[in-house]
Amino acid sequence: MPISDNYKARLYPRLETIAEHFGTPFHIYDERGIRETVLNLQSKFDYATFQEYYAVKALPNPQILKILYGEGLGFDCSSIPELILARQTGASGERIFFTSNNTTPEEFEVALADGGCILNLDDISLIDKMPKMPELICFRYNPGEKRKGNSIIGNPVESKFGLAHDQLEEAYRLAKEKGANRFGIHAMIVSNERDYQAFVQTCFMLLELVEKLNKSLNIQIEFINLGGGLGIPYHPEDKPLDLSTLAAAIQRSLIYFERLNKYMPRIYMESARYITGSHGVLVTRAINHKDTYRRYIGVDANMSSLMRPGLYGAYHHIDVFGKDSSERDVIVDVVGALCENNDKFAVQRALPPIDDGDLLIIHDTGAHGHAMGFNYNGRLRPQELLLRNNGTVERIRRAETIEDYFATLNFEPKMLNISTTHTT
Ligand SMILES: *Cc1c(COP(=O)(O)O)cnc(C)c1O
């Protein structure tokens, strides 16, 4: 179940017109699908205690962020440009979560300015590197060998993120000493995970820590942030995540916690893929084909539009516009133009016969798609479009130009003359 039949029904009849009007390639996102997914997620939890912080890195487009902010989401940021993007929507204070790692002093300055944010510290050593301790502070916990992670994010012991188990209590104690009086805790253990139990386990794990830390430090941790990582079905055979069961199990554990501890922590998440991933497609035109040892379909997009297949061997479903998708009987590699052999959107994929000029629809590019693109080989990132609720299609980012590519070569000359004497 890659993109929804509903999105297909609204997009496909107008796709050729859109492609002619805007030119290819482009990502096109679905406002309606995004809004529905947000509402569905929020409806599973208790409005009073749940907050989703969309991870800006997945789709850092102001028009998309504006939609999400309007639906009540906050933003998870981890760089200065992401903080700026989040604030441009109107978000500030506790609608922004700052989960950087390997953080610089400049990042702390910007994070704490302009109404601030919830600072999520990635290490105990950063306590002394912040310009000041805010009232509200959060720490990112890495359970190490206590948890297994999953195949995508890897083993927590090998992960650069978060504080080790034995550092946690000391970190909250130091923060309290330095003036913090409100606290949260964060962990992100899995990525693109469709087994709901992984998130329930993270919830149990964090609630247990909250109880322990509350008692030993005489504090009351206000929220647990379960991170992102909710998976989507990229492959037609993938089973979707059971969000209802996930949410019900979490709500039950919160009620149990409340019975014992006389208060209920708020529950935060920072999903991105789950919110927008399946509400975007990359549309690209077949421009060449070649038959050598394999049949290759050359398209007018390349890795600069979508890195996931080349980078992780990720599967992205592909439809050929106007061709019967039940007749997938030609085995092809779908390739871009980079001088890199991993510049392929599909490897040995059964697709309907493709002619030069056909449009290919590459599914599920609404998260970690355009944003991950790069300029290697002088390849430029494509435009982004948005299919609005009212049926209009709006360009929400232009394609990069050759001038953009050369922009960083336009600079003030700077020189340092060092005379060196070589002795041998
Ligand atoms: C990337 C990231 C996310 C979002 O991940 P998804 O898999 O898209 O849900 C959330 N939180 C942090 C800290 C991240 O680095």
Task: Describe the model.
The chain is of the alpha/beta class. It has 2 domains: 32-275, Alpha-Beta Barrel (TIM Barrel), CATH 3.20.20; 277-409, Beta Barrel (Lyase, Ornithine Decarboxylase, Chain A, domain 1). The chain is 28% helix and 21% strand. Strands 1, 10, 11, 12, 13, 14, 15, 16 and 17 form a 9-stranded mixed beta sheet that branches. The protein has an 8-stranded parallel beta barrel with strand order 2-3-4-5-6-7-8-9, surrounded by 4 helices. Strand 10 and strand 11 form a beta hairpin. Helix 8 packs parallel to helix 9 (243-261). The longest helix has 22 residues, at 196-217. Pyridoxal-5'-phosphate (PLP) binds at residues 55, 57-58, 76, 99, 188, 191-192, 227-230, 270-274, 367.
Q: How many distinct beta strands?
A: 17
Structural class: alpha/beta
Architecture per CATH nomenclature, i.e. the level-2 architecture of the largest domain: Alpha-Beta Barrel
Our measurement of the CA-to-CA distance between the termini, rounded to an integer number of angstroms, reads 68 Å
The CATH topology name of the largest domain reads: TIM Barrel
**What is the percent of helical residues?**
25-40%
Q: What gross morphology would you assign? A: globular
- The CATH class of the largest domain turns out to be Alpha Beta
Give the domain tally.
Answer: 2
Low-confidence regions: none
In percent, how much strand structure appears in the residues? Answer: 15-25%
